[in-house]
Amino acid sequence: MPLRPPVRPKRLYRQIADQIVRLIERGEYPIGSRLPSEREIADRLAVSRASVRESLIALEIAGHVEVRGGSGIYVREAAPVPEITAPDAPEMSPFDTLEARWLVEGECAALAAKNATAVDIRRIEKAFHQLCEDMETAPSVSRGDGLFHLCIAEASKNTAFVVLVRKLWEQRHLPVHRRLDQLLVSRERYLANIDEHRAIMDAIVAGNGSMARAAMRRHIRNISRQRLSKPAP
Questions:
Q1: What is the pLDDT of residue 5?
Q2: Which regions of the chain does DSSP assign to beta strands (E)?
Q3: What's the topology of domain 12-75?
Q4: Cβ distance 109 to 214 under 8 Å?
């Protein structure tokens, strides 16, 4: 497979996708053929499986490949749709976004445990109840989930964190992020969110900053693991 490292670090998964598209266009992967495995691509490019997984999902969204559950990823017969996004579009890597959330939201939770007012606590609890309802009905479009995290950021009393958390959560609505969730996040994972969010909330209510940070980081790490633990589609 003539894929060659190094791949520049900027927007890595899109650069991997570009390399695969060029190989398809040159006929090295004919229409209907199966692409190499996710692990093989990662090994040959010397990049992470996460970046390869993101790139393959981006290619599916762009119409270059078809994801067949339990079988693999195949070059599509249909003509590709236009470019995934404009080169300067503000889309971040899903796994990079989760890593940033792990750092930022862990500290938000710790500060919220220290600084939250009674009003903040009520807002966090209300968002939690909304999240619980959403997880039973429409988990993939939960309004309560994002609201819960934003309420914690606001309870931290750090305005920079509020802006960062809002921007990071906006990424979740972009195509690659949404498709990653659709393909790889199970209903069991969504329901596990309830207990994880409750642990975060309880630590904040108790005023225990270190416990709140640990609970938030455990939750976000579990989100990331879910998206990598299942085999590639």
A1: 56
A2: 65-68, 72-75
A3: Arc Repressor Mutant, subunit A (1.10.10)
A4: no
Q: How far apart are CA 218 and CA 220, in angstroms?
A: 6
Tens-digit pLDDT profile for residues 134-162:
887 776 667 899 999 999 999 999 999 99
Domain boundaries, the chain: 12-75, 94-229
Across the range 37-41, mean pLDDT stands at 87
Residue 88 has pLDDT above 50, yes or no: no
Q: Confirm if 180 and 58 have CB atoms less than 8 A apart.
A: no
**How do beta strands 65-68 and 72-75 pair?**
antiparallel
Number of other CB atoms surrounding residue 186 within 10 Å = 12
Q: Among candidates 165, 10, 163, which has minimal Cα distance to 88?
A: 10
State the CB neighbour count (10 A cutoff) for residue 107: 19
Q: Which residue has the tokens 């949404």?
A: 178
**C-alpha to C-alpha distances, 28 to 1, 54, 178, nearest whole angstrom:** 9, 21, 30
Tell me how far apart the alpha carbons of residues 174 and 152 are, in angstroms, rounded to a whole number.
Answer: 23
Q: Cα–chain-centroid distance for residue 67?
A: 18
Q: Residue 90: what pLDDT?
A: 56
Report the CATH fold assignment for 94-229: Four Helix Bundle (Hemerythrin (Met), subunit A) (1.20.120)
Enclosing H/E stretch for 70: none
Average pLDDT estimate for 9-25: 82
Helices (H), ranges, 116-158: 118-137, 143-155
Q: Pick from 93, 56, 81: which is nearest to 172 by CA?
A: 93
Looking at the chain, how many residues does it have?
233
SS3 of 67, please? strand
